């Protein structure tokens, strides 16, 4: 009979969260490497190269793959024969592990969790509490899977109660284009079919904890109807041409995972939860012999891909940037930004626009006229860093503020990830502005371009404060040009249907 000690569980959860913050799993890296070799779209290939280069940098430097270090989700199987040497309950012990991981001074992770979610939304400052799913099973061990789920991908989760005669694959194919690129493809789709409403969602999330094995499945062929469904959805989603970061390309999903459960005869619950290009999860077992020991992955399993700026990329100097220069940028064009830009995301935009719409002045020193804003909430720096990993956040959350920011605040351009909505695109066209894309899932690579950082306004917002960054050759792509052309419309349209005929065995 195993005796699980409190300190072993706390330490194991903390170590696991640190581990997954900077190590991609080898199966994911192999799948992303294959996607890079297959990709024919220059924009998508460049984005995948950034993701792979960033992944290796993080593995070497033990810094987060993405600035959004996630909401912690823990699946726990407790053996019926387990005994405890503990003074706290199971959830308290897990949350203590989360707290230690996110406050670790050697690799402090961004705290993103807010309490009182419908009202005050106050940051808990240590990323607790975790979302914990517990079940009991035979045996005398503790079986744990720890995941950190980013908000951009979690926000694209879908659920429907279909009719029993409906096609699951058809429904998924109808929904994926509406998910946009805010979930940072290429990644995985987790699908849950059956049970009740909440069971289907849990199945979808659980399925994402499985290994990435689509390459092997395609090579050997389906052996049951669920595998046939996985293959069908995989091929049809990739044929949409959405591609890496929604720029248009051959690979939108690396894998499709699927779990099912018996359901009511009148029902067909279906849930879809995507996992992004910063997919993070790890499994371990405690048997009473001490904390879990997680072996670092072999860095030789990373493909020999090193992103370098395109020689044809246009260098843009932000200090003194003119509206005429912005008007000359074309959709899909790659830029390298140098100079000073401001940052801001949801909470800051809400405050800024409330002041401007009320005819009030912004805080002293905060002026957006003829400036560029970067939608980001960075990780705190450690050691000699100017700033921690600082990848983009999903831009369309700021769509509601775009008219005020361009019309009253005087912005020239915006940087974020994924597509803008039609109303925001019209506002961009109206003001002859532009929207630029930085690669989601390449946060450390982006932060390497930041030379200085200072807080300009709203320091109490923590990572959501307004910063001023000085950057050098920060890589971006023109997502929406001044005339309202969007690469997230033209890119997928150009690559739609081209996935058919992709070979299975590419090593």
Care to describe what's here?
The chain is of the alpha/beta class and 507 residues long. Helix 11 links the parallel strand 14 (334-343) and strand 15 (372-374). The model has no long low-confidence stretch (mean pLDDT 95). Helix content is 31%, strand content 23%. It is built from 15 helices and 19 strands. It folds into three domains: 1-24 and 65-149, no CATH class; 150-285, no CATH class; 314-492, Fe-S hydro-lyase, tartrate dehydratase beta-type, catalytic domain (fumarase). The longest helix has 20 residues, at 42-61. The protein has helices at residues 6-22, 26-38, 42-61, 90-102, 151-154, 168-179, 197-207, 214-220, 225-238, 323-327, 346-357, 402-407, 422-430, 443-447, 487-495, and strands spanning 3-5, 71-79, 83-85, 114-115, 122-123, 131-137, 142-149, 158-162, 187-194, 253-261, 268-275, 281-286, 314-317, 334-343, 372-374, 413-416, 434-437, 450-457, 466-480. A five-stranded mixed barrel has the order 14-15-16-17-19.
Write a concise keyword list for the protein shown above.
507 residues; alpha/beta; fumarase; 3 domains; five-stranded mixed barrel; four-stranded mixed beta sheet; 15 helices; 31% helix; 23% strand
Quick structural gist:
The protein is 31% helix and 23% strand.
Helical stretch count? Answer: 15
Biggest sheet features: 5 strands, mixed, barrel
Number of strands: 19
CATH class of the largest domain: Alpha Beta
Poorly predicted parts = none
CATH superfamily membership of the largest domain = Fe-S hydro-lyase, tartrate dehydratase beta-type, catalytic domain
Could you please say which CATH topology of the largest domain applies here? fumarase
In the CATH classification, which architecture of the largest domain applies? Answer: Alpha-Beta Barrel
- Helical content stands at 25-40%
Task: Give the CA-CA distance, first to last residue.
Answer: 46 Å
Overall domain count: 3
The global form is globular
Q: What structural category do the secondary elements indicate?
A: alpha/beta
Strand neighbour order, sheet with most strands: 14-15-16-17-19
Summarize model confidence as the mean pLDDT: 95
